[in-house]
């Protein structure tokens, strides 16, 4: 069987898409810079990509912040993240102290900041702590001890320009834990909720897409945490 020149070109482009996909997964720090190349190549062969895993104007955590090359049905998780704080500042502090979080060791007033940022943005602070727990066990593991990040958020220009951060292995490294708290709350409110992704399922599917994460496990972990603090989770009957 012989192939025409257009078919050969299409095959080469598809091979390059697969190649770049593998490279992106292995080296997250380069994803942002070549996102447009990936999308353009897909367009040449009739494939449409919203963005690469970890792409988007303000990337999320765990490899998130945009669409992905796979999908998970999260329609049964309609849990809203926007409501008054479920934890008081004192309760936030108790959690961080009990878990020996380096955030409260370095910045003793960080619990008050979690609470006041929750009031400012309207995002329940129970979800902020739940994400912090899932991403790094409250700052103890993964990249968090180096990045001071509560959400393992990808590096973008916004990280530098608005939060005074810098790049660390593809992620935003903040000057303080408080800067990362502000970034996380703003990302959830401005980057997801205000864009129409206002349920926990929709948010996590984009924040930690299935190309690099177990989305349902992430949702179950967050739901399990917020339920402890009085959040009605009946609208999100998801199990890992």
Provide tags for this entry:
two-stranded antiparallel sheet; 11 helices; single chain; 2 strands; 240 residues; Lysozyme; globular
Question: What would you note in describing this structure?
Answer:
It is a single chain. By secondary structure, the chain is mainly alpha-helical. It has two domains: about 5-45; about 90-225, Lysozyme. It contains eleven helices and two strands, in the order ααααααααββααα. A two-stranded antiparallel sheet has the order 1-2. Helix 3 (about 90-100) crosses helix 5 (about 110-120) and helix 10 packs across helix 11. The chain is globular and about 70 Å long. The termini are far apart.
SS-based structural class? mainly alpha
Count of DSSP E strands?
2
How do the helices and strands follow one another from N- to C-terminus? HHHHHHHHEEHHH
Q: Give the overall shape, derived from the CA principal axes.
A: globular
Query: How can the largest sheet be summarized?
Result: 2 strands, antiparallel
Radius of gyration: 19 Å
> What is the topology, as strand order, of the major beta sheet?
1-2
Proportion of strand residues: under 5%
Say what the CATH topology of the largest domain is. Lysozyme
What is the mean pLDDT?
82
Number of helices: 11
Query: Regions with pLDDT < 50 over 5+ consecutive residues?
Result: 24-36, 45-57, 63-68
Q: In CATH terms, what is the architecture of the largest domain?
A: Orthogonal Bundle
CATH top level assignment of the largest domain? Mainly Alpha
What is the domain total for the residues?
2
**Termini gap:** 46 Å
Which percent bin holds the helix content? 40-55%
């Amino acid at each position: 069987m012989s192939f025409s020149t257009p078919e050969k070109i299409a095959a080469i482009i598809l091979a390059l898409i697969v190649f770049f996909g593998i490279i992106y997964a292995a080296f997250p720090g380069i994803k942002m810079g070549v996102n447009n190349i990936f999308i353009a190549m897909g367009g040449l062969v009739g494939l449409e990509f919203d963005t690469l895993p970890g792409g988007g104007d303000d990337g999320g955590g765990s490899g998130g912040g945009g669409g992905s090359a796979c999908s998970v049905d999260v329609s049964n998780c309609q849990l809203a993240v926007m409501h008054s704080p479920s934890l008081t500042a004192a309760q936030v502090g108790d959690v961080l102290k009990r878990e020996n979080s380096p955030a409260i060791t370095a910045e003793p007033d960080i619990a008050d900041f979690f609470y006041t940022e929750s009031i400012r943005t309207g995002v329940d602070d129970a979800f902020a702590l739940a994400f912090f727990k899932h991403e790094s066990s409250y700052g103890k593991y993964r990249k968090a001890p180096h990045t001071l990040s509560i959400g393992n958020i990808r590096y973008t220009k916004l990280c530098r320009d608005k939060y005074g951060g810098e790049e660390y292995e593809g992620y935003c490294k903040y000057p303080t834990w408080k800067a990362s708290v502000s970034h996380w709350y703003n990302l959830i409110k401005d980057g997801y909720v205000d864009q129409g992704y206002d349920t926990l399922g929709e948010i996590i599917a984009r924040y930690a897409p299935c190309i690099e994460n177990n989305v349902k496990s992430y949702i179950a972990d967050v739901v399990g945490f917020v339920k402890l603090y009085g959040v009605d989770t009946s609208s999100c009957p998801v199990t890992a």
